[in-house]
Design brief:
The chain crosses the membrane at residues 6-24. This protein has 187 residues and is of the alpha+beta class. It has helices at residues 5-38, 89-92, 127-140, and strands at residues 43-49, 53-60, 66-75, 78-80, 98-99, 106-108, 113-120, 143-150, 156-162, 178-179, 185-186.
Length: 187
């Protein structure tokens, strides 16, 4: 009986091709998984609680884009898409440097940010402005922010954070530090 080497070489070539196809399929799957994990958004709330500047910013610290589906503010049993709508009239009708009003699906690239609220005072804080800042900090310390978002692979997530860090300066109403003319903090 004669051995047909062409048939054996053909069979080996088919087997090697099938192995290569399986390897390619698993490589593509691993590459897709790697891309999904490396292009994840990482939401973060940054707050500024300074003497003349109070702000709340929503930032994407991840490597991938963050697609915002909704932003909601909660204070007690009240909810709103704008933090200003939750405020009492003494705070609501104040001049704000910036406050957030929702647009349709917003997209934050890596390191992009949205300023949700900002109040910047002129230098030198009067007694009425100190009272306003105290009331604003009191209000903000009771608010939570909920953001529903997704990544570019349609993986949906919910980010929730309390703004209770604004309460750190509310211990004693008279102990609110002030900035003097040269910028040194005093108690």
């Amino acid at each position: 009986m004669e051995i047909d080497y062409n048939l054996i070489i053909g069979a080996i070539a088919v087997i090697i091709s099938l192995i290569a196809l399986l390897y390619t399929k698993s490589s593509i799957k691993l590459q897709k998984l790697h891309n999904e994990k490396s292009l994840k958004p990482l939401p973060m709330i940054e707050t500024g609680d300074y003497e003349i500047d109070i702000y709340i910013k929503f930032i994407n610290k991840g490597n991938g884009p963050l697609i915002i589906n909704s932003i909601e503010f909660i204070s007690g049993n009240k909810k709103s898409e704008s933090i200003v709508n939750l405020m009492n009239d003494d705070l609501k009708f104040e001049y704000w440097n910036t406050f957030y009003v929702r647009n349709n699906k917003e997209i934050l690239q890596s390191t992009d940010e949205i300023t949700l609220l900002q109040k910047k005072l002129k230098s030198g804080v009067s007694a009425s402005e100190k009272e306003f800042l105290f009331n604003l900090r009191t209000f903000l310390s009771q608010v939570s922010v909920i953001v529903e978002f997704e990544d570019i692979y349609n993986n949906k997530s919910i980010f929730k954070e309390s703004l209770n860090r604004f309460s750190r300066r509310l211990k004693d109403k008279t102990a609110i530090s002030r900035v003097d003319e040269v910028g040194i903090r005093e108690k």
